[in-house]
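pipeline/complex-builder :: batch 7 item 3
reading input block
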Amino acid sequence: MAVKGLGELDQNYDGSKLRIGIIHARWNKKIIDALVDGAVQRLKALGVTDANIVIESVPGSFELPYGSLQFLQRQQAKGEPLDAVIPIGVLIKGSTMHFEYICDSVTKALMRLNFDAKVPIIFGVLTCITEEQAEARAGLIQGKMHNHGEDWGAAAVEMASKQPK
Amino acid sequence: MAVKGLGELDQNYDGSKLRIGIIHARWNKKIIDALVDGAVQRLKALGVTDANIVIESVPGSFELPYGSLQFLQRQQAKGEPLDAVIPIGVLIKGSTMHFEYICDSVTKALMRLNFDAKVPIIFGVLTCITEEQAEARAGLIQGKMHNHGEDWGAAAVEMASKQPK
Amino acid sequence: MAVKGLGELDQNYDGSKLRIGIIHARWNKKIIDALVDGAVQRLKALGVTDANIVIESVPGSFELPYGSLQFLQRQQAKGEPLDAVIPIGVLIKGSTMHFEYICDSVTKALMRLNFDAKVPIIFGVLTCITEEQAEARAGLIQGKMHNHGEDWGAAAVEMASKQPK
Amino acid sequence: MAVKGLGELDQNYDGSKLRIGIIHARWNKKIIDALVDGAVQRLKALGVTDANIVIESVPGSFELPYGSLQFLQRQQAKGEPLDAVIPIGVLIKGSTMHFEYICDSVTKALMRLNFDAKVPIIFGVLTCITEEQAEARAGLIQGKMHNHGEDWGAAAVEMASKQPK
Amino acid sequence: MAVKGLGELDQNYDGSKLRIGIIHARWNKKIIDALVDGAVQRLKALGVTDANIVIESVPGSFELPYGSLQFLQRQQAKGEPLDAVIPIGVLIKGSTMHFEYICDSVTKALMRLNFDAKVPIIFGVLTCITEEQAEARAGLIQGKMHNHGEDWGAAAVEMASKQPK
């Protein structure tokens, strides 16, 4: 569990009435899987039921913003609207400038989607220089850092609970 | 009190009729607390009543822009609309590129929110390379710099007073 | 075929009912041709018919975003609407800052077009420091990397299939 | 007077019917004052009357974009609409990343305001590495550079004159 | 004439029915003049008549995006609407950060204007580190590079021809 930061909630939230979507990219699968698992565990610890945790995927991080909107709309159409979305991706610096342009455009598009969709969109994207940094932030390196997916799960419940009616 | 800059008002403002919201992230708690306190002290010095200073929090700085909108809307729904919002966060450079992408997207989203919400949104986010820089700007290092929260409190009263009716 | 990443689909998609547009810039023709070919091959492997793969071009990458919108609108007007667009361009760092400003504005405009056009827009732009990096990502250097056009073809079919009705 | 550049007008403009707003930040007062003075002198030289030059201020440069909109709206409400606005600020690189994020968000927000307010907004913000650079551009260093405020005054008259009716 | 790239059209375009606007900044006049001339020559070679090439100017590059919109609207109001606009500017790195912020905001605003005005806006802005780089791209250094204005003229005719009716 997080020692400081996002993981510390300002009050006890009850997630038992919330439906939370997780949408993840499929690059760097092992790290992604750990982050998704961390988010799911925290959602459950805050009372979100298994049936109310919906998980989807898209090919890469560039697809996360529009994929999140598609996801919201499909759930809406089914009569099972989401109260928050956690888009999860792992971006690692390579030799071209792909990392920089993807990180920047994805971060801003996820930020904007909060306002356009009027649903909290949590920033579950790691923007790392090395693969090891990403592994550490997914809790995969013993004794280093906690799984950031836990923070994202907590943030989703908090922000969904603060949504104006 | 600020020696130069934001802290110097162009005229005497009367905050006694204004309701000001402060919304802060919860990372780097000691620094955040000092900044919030600086803002509150300055708001009071300019006549804002205790009852009209409303304080909320969000998990991290990425949540500040949408959290500010939620905050504005909840206050509106309660019949207690805010005349300005001061989002407060402390971002410190780490080893990944998280700092850069969060700083950039948060700054732009707060800027934009001014126009979308039609309420002054003050920029209360420190974007520092070291923790010491942030402490200095929160007035926590004796004899170094003043508490920037004071400037933000003054800016909130001024910008709210300049709002077209 | 891709070993990991975008190329691995999360399920079997049937592209036989989809119409996919490819719009490419004309700079660095040999690399562009290989990328377009990779995308076409993958689209066909996923069931998209020859008649439903529509290929257009624009002068340079700056024209890709607005050119994609023109393309979508012309196809719409013909009664042959596109289910996804793959804009393809190859940008290589030169001695001025042209590369940086074009890469940044094109990436963000393509991201935004997803939301404005309500059609998946795949990011088929290489942002490379050297021409060799671009050749490798087009599958033109034996034994180095796979043709990224294949990933884009797969992403187009997947994202089009996930479009809410 | 400017030797080349903005200062050279493409034709003789008559500012006698125009009302121009200047809104300045209050940091770096000596430099700001010189720039405002340069703009005012040039406006007058182009025929703008004293009564039609309206000057306002905001605390810092972050407040310039929304402050410009407030300014436009207040003047509109008074029945004294502005034909152009010159927001003036002086930003100087410090030890944190504050400079970078403020410069970037302010520049883009002022650019956008042109389109949203449908009134020319001139870019009167200096983004300098050193204070000396800013002094030089305010005409405060004898024999170095001209006062850039003059260019901004000329640009305001020209752009206001080119406004479609 | 261009050896590769933008200069090679994908088909023969007939510009004889098109009206094209050129709007240029007035800094670095010699280079600007050469670029405007290159664009005009290419427009004529593609059949655009002298009467249908309309040339305007603005003070500096920051004014190009809004100046282009004013230009479009004035021509519209006259009953002589433009089918494409070529904004031309030359930006050269100086000692402050002015270059970076202007280049970035101008590029993105021109990109966006395509979508807002629904008319092709060609990117005719050079973003150079040295003046010599700009001269070379204006065809002013014998035996070095071709005049990029030619590419912009060709792109304007092509993009205008591809406009949906």
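note: Chain D has one domain: 35-158.
queue -> next item
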